[in-house]
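Quick board copy: two proteins, each given as sequence then tokens.
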Amino acid sequence: MSRLEDLEAFIHIAETGSLTKAARHLGRSLQAVSRSLAALEEDVGVQLVHRTTRHCSLSEAGEAFFRRVKPAMEEIGEARLEVADRRAAPSGILRVGAPVLFGPDFLVPIIAQYMRAYPQIEVDLQLTDSFVDLAAEGLDLVVRIADLPDSGLQGRRLGALRRVVFGAPSYFEERGRPAHPSELRQHDCIVRTIDQRSGQWAFEIDGKRRSVGVRGPFRTNTMAAIYSAVGAGLGIGYSPLWQIRHLLDAGQVEVILEAFESKPVPIHVLWQEHRLPPAKVRAFIDYLAAGLKLDRF
């Protein structure tokens, strides 16, 4: 059976067209590289390389052999790196991106556990609701809450989050409680003005996704203002459940129209497309998968 050193020598000879250049690149003697090629040809039983005093070229059999062997050797090289990387504890700076409201409550506790487990790690957490470019921003990974298009990134689904319609008990006592999404048109609804489809709330009606147009006398550009307005009884709001869980637990708001909720929004962790993400990234992804408790959201 051919040794890996012989196969490496053959690949470098094929790519450089020279035994001398291959030897220099591998840090081996010319005689050692020549012996590797001879041993490989004896093993496979055909001539792989045509040699002259100044140049080497692949034979027809050598061309076919090179096409098959090169990807296999790359896989072996990556496997070696992965094993070596797994032996090393995560270290360095981990740069993480996440939504503004999601990061402090959900990610920071997990980051704290991760940093205690790996003291050589520093974490730079960047909070933004924009879909930033990882490479341009220098991020190792991002957490995104959305239906994702094909982005060229690798990812892992962490769960899904509900979107709900909610209001204050005082509002429902005065105006009544809608029993169907269509009845929202007769109610004061608080709309976020910066949404792409402002005033269009998504529901699942008769097994199909439907949008219902809503409006009201109060509107704003921030979710924080919406939560305050709903709590003050100014109207009905629409929000990810995780953002209002504290209001719900405190009895300040109530969720309605649960039977018509649209499908939960998936949450993913995404990282740049590498076959082998660094140990610091892999370890943090594992912490996220184990630590995020989304069953109440």
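And the next:
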Amino acid sequence: MTQWKYCIFPLGAILIWAGNMVVSKASAGLIAPEAISFYRWLLAAVLMSPFLLKPVWQARAVYLHYWKQVCVLALLGMVLYQSLAYFAAATSTATSMGVIASLLPLLTVLFSAVLMKEITTVGMLFGGILSLYGILILISSGHPGILLEHGVAYGDLLMLMASMSYSLYGVLLRKWALPIPVWHLLYLQIILAVVMLLPGFIMGQHSPVTMANLPLLLYAGIAASIGSQILWMRSVAYWGASRSSMFMNLMPIFTVIIAVVTLGESVHWFHVVGGGITLTGVLIAQLLKKQIVFKRT
């Protein structure tokens, strides 16, 4: 039972991300995606610099040995995932974004199997399949066959790409296990994200910071950029990429609740059924730990 206290890491991160899905949707029309992407990481960098700039600079000779890996992590976890999510918000709902983000467990298991040769458990396999079915019910409003006829919305496709990016980020974070303190690694990624996002910010739409979008920016820059990231990195360090990502199935449930309260979105039967099936998949994935062994013939 002691290990379950460490659930606070993935659950805390996912709760913040669920709120950020709603923030992303609320920001559409108030601030350009390229602007909020840049501002949020710039704010995070400014807030963290007084505490981390000096120690990170002093250890620069050591960290330079891993600059390629840190650049890849920053690109996948900070730049692509967050930017694509903001662009997706223009044509997708907060609920749909949360649902699609729940595909992270399946994507992470796939990447882990390829890159880390991880053994899949019975819980991960059947829990993942069950969760995917719940996600399909949510996306299709209770009619999965509609997806074959009408396809997926553009915003949903962007969110899928974002989810693929972050699942790969989690796997590489675990695979490389860089000998860099967690806070230092986060700070380095944020600094690099600011540099990578600067060209798009300069050439893209210019959105001033206003009283209307300032609260959204503060949430994205502090809670979502710093708090969630440190929680997630600690989750990956303790649980591993695959087991941590299984908690992502809770994303649609958290997102729907927050969206209903803050945006007034309605809850329909397919939200309840799909969310329930998804939650069941999470529990199965965590409780059934028997490994799947493929026998050679």
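Board note added afterward: The chain has a mean pLDDT of 82.
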